[in-house]
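Methods: example folding runs. The two proteins below were folded one after another, and each record is reproduced exactly as written to the output file, sequence line first and structure-token line second.
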Amino acid sequence: MVRALRRPAFWALLAVCSLFALVPSVPDQVAQLGDLVLHAGAFLTLAVSGALAYSRRPLWVIGAWLVFYGALIEVVQGMSGLRQADPVDLLVDIVATAVGLAVVGALRILRDRWRSRSSG
């Protein structure tokens, strides 16, 4: 049952992130966390949930798509007139994505080692 929810959960998270990235202003409670913390949390979460949702895809593919998504957000924000693009935001998106995927990759290695020891 939980596996069946991985992809819908990822796309729901992506939709929420897109909404917060494109609305003119975010609620005060959200803004108090700080823009870079929000970006890091969002892309770390997207990286982990994307890796779980698309577990048969190489991690670099998921990372590439998330970097493209982060760049697209910045371009749209810059063109909208309601928000402004910030290359530092994109850098944080890239780092958070890399950290999330590195954690998933490390956990996959540990899982595979544990499985090979258990079966052998």
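Second run, written to the same file directly after the first:
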Amino acid sequence: MLFGSAINKSAVFAPVLSPDGAVSLRLILREGEKFSPISSRLAAIIADPDTVNAIYVAWEAIRVRIGTSINGLSIDLDDESFHGLSRNKLRLEGDSISLAAFISFYMLFNNQFSNYQSIVATGAIRKKPLGYSIGRVEGVREKLEKTCLIKNPHQKTAIVVPKVNVKELDIANSVNDIWTVNQSLDFHCQHTAT
């Protein structure tokens, strides 16, 4: 069974770099047959143990906030994203998918992003001795440059990055809203598009 947000129908995308440039992968939640934060088909196209760990850390970070109600839900890619990667024989690497995974779960229980049809998020959630924090992302400009400058008149888009990365974006000219996430994993709107 596919899960949309109980509060809104926003689509969450994780931008990744490929040999052909930036690609946005749509994340979805699936009800799993077994207890696993990552669907088996997503796990099959991950080439880097850090990517698996990043999704688990995102799941743990949201579970600390909302409890066991996410048990049985797994992060997956929508069919178009999965088949696009498979067809091009691409595999996922890196940990910047963790913020998008976190937001996918977060939106089930919080309406902060309810007025957006599309959320594009990149950031690496890190497990620390006293909790969780967000880390700097490499290549944020390359991943998001087109997204910041292209407005879809049919949907409102939020771009979410770690606060330490926001200076790398040309937010004054962004046609989409820019949100940041701080070290406490709290979200703040930095720029509202006009």
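Comment on the second run: The helical segments are 40-44, 49-66, 79-87, 98-106, 140-149.
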